[in-house]
Amino acid sequence: MFHAPHGNQRAPLPTARESEPVPTTQQAHTQVVDAPAEKSAPKSACRDAYFDNAKYLAIVLVAVAHAWEPVMDGSRASRALYLLVYSFHMPAFILISGYFSRSYTGRPDQLRRLLTGIAVPYVVFEVVYSLFRRWAQDAPEQPISLLDPFYLTWFLAALFIWRLTAPLWRLIKWPVPVALTLASLATLTPDIGADLNLQRVLQFLPFFVLGLCLKPEHFQLVRRREARLLALPLFAGAGVFAYWASAHMNFGWLYRSSSAQELGVPWWAGIVMTLAFFGCALLLTAGFLAWVPRRRTWFTVLGAGTICGYLLHGLLIKAADYGRVFEDYAWLSDPGGEIMLTLIAAAAVTLLCTPPVRRSLRWVTEPDMRWAFRRDATELGRLRR
């Protein structure tokens, strides 16, 4: 390092403190389901209560919707509520994931966190879910495939792909329109196949890309009092529309895992539904974020354990499914039974997000695998200094 005006005078080396990266809120929230924070950073200084609150509330909605799915068919009101919640809970989760992926550039330390925080949990829980299905259904011939995500694990596979492509989206001049084009084209392509659930990866992609494009001031807009007030008529109108649509719409559109042809509609319907669902999900996500508490609450700490709540609550849902609980207890489809299922699902996922559960699963959700990686030159130079 040289200062040109003074010839070959060597610039002073930075001190060790100056050379260390300063932990930021964005680094601490590198993945929404939830990356390990930097070891040296105090957690209270690294995390934003608002986003932890949003992640916890979103994961509760995910668990509750999964609990409703097996019992909702007998009630139009239940189907409408399911349609309303399913329209925005995963888009909200994915959008926040994209927002906290803005700093991803593919640095060695980021790639290590990507592998340990997303790839390793994906592999482990894909195997766990597959073995659980084999045991519960007494079907040892069922294959275990890491290329065909089972049940909830698709999100980890998708997040891995989206995160890897984040630097590319920052190079594109119109990233959101391009992502919407890819999502629309996916709905016209029934031959994509089940590998890594690429149909869902592409159809949910616009929400991740939009998150990459957002700035803190955009979230300040939805946190204003006016936004909270506007969210009330928004959800009221969406609820009325969902009640009407629940009797007419194919819910396959919600899952983004099928093409238009596979859903039995003309090809152009895929483009229309892609744009319509993107707009609806965006409005409802803004309304949801408007009502997320900004201050620390009793559940703020649970936002750091959403990966545990997400991955483990699926085992409870599948256990009830394999045990024919929803079929043998028909009263669960009654209003009282659905309310009870809602409370149980919310309580269970809350428990699964608690710090003791997170600590007990850290070996798989936040593994320390330094033994598996080479140290890059930057890290070695910092250690020498």
UniProtKB/TrEMBL annotation:
The keyword Glycoprotein does not apply. This is Acyltransferase 3 domain-containing protein. GO terms for molecular function: acyltransferase activity, transferring groups other than amino-acyl groups. The keyword Metal-binding does not apply. Residues 49-353 form the Acyltransferase domain. Keywords: Membrane, Transmembrane, Transmembrane helix. Residues 1-39 are annotated as: Disordered. The chain crosses the membrane at residues 49-68, 80-101, 113-132, 144-162, 227-245, 265-291, 298-319, 339-357. PANTHER family: MEMBRANE-BOUND ACYLTRANSFERASE YKRP-RELATED. It comes from the Bacteria.
